[in-house]
Write a structure and sequence with these properties.
Elements (H helix, E strand, L loop, with lengths): L1 H16 L2 E5 L2 H7 L8 H13 L3 E6 L2 H8 L5 E6 L3 H6 E11 L2 E5 L3 H6 L10 H5 L7 E4 L6 H9 L5 E4 L4 H10 L5 E4 L1 H8 L6 E5 L6 E9 L2 H19 L2 H9 L2 H4 L2 H4 L6
Parallel strand pairs: 1-2, 1-3, 6-7, 6-8
Antiparallel strand pairs: 3-10, 4-10, 5-8, 5-9
Helix pairs in contact: 3-11
């Protein structure tokens, strides 16, 4: 009996050694996965459904800054993180799961603050706009971005053209919520983010905010689990994708996505889902 217990413990320990560490930027996600909290975003709800099937492949979960996460992902140890966009550069370096999150395409947000802005940002103004060209028209205003965060191939290239005097790189332990507060406080004039995030503020009498469509931006953005390339993560990704595929096939993915998207985007998501498994 003692020998059997010893062997069982040894097998558990061995499986954990050959597991991955999940790096997260929010304690909320950890709490959801261990059933201490209800999900607030789509990826949390989706991952909570597949977590029982992948839990044995996760050695532990850590909440870290984006900067620290990026550094660990570039090490030789097995690490994964969530809600990452596929970019050309990343696809050459990392493994990606099927999509675990869906947002409407990114938009540019600004405060209306004077006659020039009112004219430039009016509803009749030309859209979509090229990010760099638009921001550079307002040389004394600040455009903020989140540190160690990719906005996708096209927008990353546009952001790289913005003059350093106008660019504020924001870093925080809980970057997304703090980033929106930074913008709402009017400490910066421009940000790029998702319509779902800004929806409540666009309809608030307390804020005079305008949004602009961006050139090169697609109707939807998809977030993925992203892992560095090694044997442990290859096996982990197979298990995760098998579990996610079942949610896609059963219509669970579409149902959950429709809860978090704005109504006009939710209408079109069902036709997009089959392409996510290709």
């Amino acid at each position: 009996m003692i020998r059997l217990i010893f062997v069982s413990l040894l097998l558990v320990a061995f499986s954990r050694v050959n597991a991955t560490t999940l790096l997260l930027d929010s304690q909320q996600t950890v709490d959801v996965l261990v059933s201490k909290s209800s999900p607030k975003i789509m990826s949390e709800e989706l991952l909570s459904l597949v977590y029982p099937q992948i839990e044995s492949s996760i050695s532990n979960m850590q909440v870290l800054s984006h900067k620290r996460i990026e550094r660990l992902l570039n090490s030789d140890e097995a690490f994964c993180t969530t809600n990452r966009l596929k970019t050309t550069e990343r696809k050459s370096k990392y493994l990606f799961s099927h999509a675990i999150d869906v947002y409407s395409g990114l938009k540019l947000y600004a405060h209306k603050k004077n006659d020039l802005y009112l004219e430039t940002l009016s509803d009749s103004a030309e859209q979509p706009v090229a990010l760099h060209n638009f921001v550079s028209r307002f040389k004394h205003d600040i455009f903020a971005i989140i540190a160690n965060y990719s906005y996708g191939d096209v927008l990353d290239e546009e952001i790289s053209k913005v003059d350093e005097s106008q660019l504020y790189v924001f870093e925080s332990k809980d970057p997304f919520e703090d980033f929106i507060h930074l913008f709402l406080s009017k400490r910066v004039q421009f940000i790029v983010t998702y319509p779902e995030v800004m929806h409540e503020y666009m309809n608030s009498v307390d804020h005079d905010i305008v949004e602009r469509d961006l050139k090169g931006e697609k109707p939807y953005r998809f977030g993925h689990v992203m892992c560095n390339k090694n044997e442990e993560n290859q096996a982990f990704m197979i298990s995760l994708n098998n579990a996610l595929r079942q949610l896609y096939v059963k219509g669970v993915f579409t149902k959950i996505a429709s809860k978090y998207l704005l109504p006009e985007q939710a209408e079109g998501i069902e036709s997009i889902v089959p392409t996510l498994l290709e």
